[in-house]
Amino acid sequence: MRTDALTRTFRARLARLQAALLPWRCQLCGAPGQDGLDLCHACDADLPRNRSCCARCALPLPHAAELCGECQRRLPPWDAAWAPFRYGWPLDRLESRFKFGADLAAGRTLSKLWAREFTSLEKPDLILPVPLHPKRLRQRGYNQALELARPLAAAWHVPMRSDILQRERDTAAQTELDRAARRRNMRGAFSLSASIALPAHIALLDDVMTTGATLAECALRLKRAGVRRVDVWALARAPSR
Ligand SMILES: [Zn+2]
Ligand SMILES: [Zn+2]
């Protein structure tokens, strides 16, 4: 067994031991949690579900519609999107603790919440978490997309690989760019391992989908390599781009 697999086994055993000794407790308000979940029923009910959204990009819409204005003008390069939550209070508190505060327990809660959600989309052959640039991975110590993807892939019995897609350029500082500039900035940011045969249907997985520029670039990369169907999965969709 490799060292990271051993570490994971150890961490999983430790988490089970802690769960057996300590009661489940809400990570948002401290009230008793639910069985198997560090979140109380009231906070769970407050999480913003993304029930009416664009059929193609999951952009939250006030009423369920076929396509948002942006997708009507220009269809994204992926085939379907799934984002069970909207990025807003109080989910954003758990997400920022997970992403910027090294709170991996918050990440486990988010992953469990996601695993409970339902999608009518066909199961993919493979899940690919969006990779971080190695520099950013060293700074953060973990890839938040991979941390979310690993338990989901196990729960849904879908293979997952984190060695197929690589980030070649660090493109994280995109907030000041407009949409067209973000797309240009993304070009050539990802590469694929040439030696690995790709299946027909892949789901790209990320934590939060904002403009979709990152996922679009990854989807294009996969489509150009001959993948027939590419779906994008995100835990949460930002309400506007
Ligand atoms: Zn609570
Ligand atoms: Zn759309």
Describe the structure.
The chain is of the alpha/beta class. It folds into two domains: 13-46, no CATH class; 50-237, Rossmann fold, CATH 3.40.50. It contains nine helices and seven strands. The protein has helices at 3-21, 41-46, 69-73, 91-100, 104-116, 134-140, 144-156, 179-186, 213-224; strands spanning 80-82, 85-86, 126-129, 165-167, 190-192, 201-209, 229-237. Strands 1, 2, 3, 6 and 7 form a five-stranded parallel sheet that branches. The radius of gyration is 18 Å and the shape is globular. One zinc ion binds at residues 54, 56-57, 59, 67-68, 70-71. The site of one zinc ion has 8 residues, from helix 3.
Query: For the residues shown, what is the average pLDDT?
Result: 91
Element order: H for helix, E for strand: HHHEEHHEHHEHEEHE
The gyration radius over C-alpha positions equals: 18 Å
Poorly predicted segments: none
Summarize the biggest pleated sheet. Answer: 5 strands, parallel
What's the CATH C level of the largest domain? Alpha Beta
The oligomeric state of the chains shown is: single chain
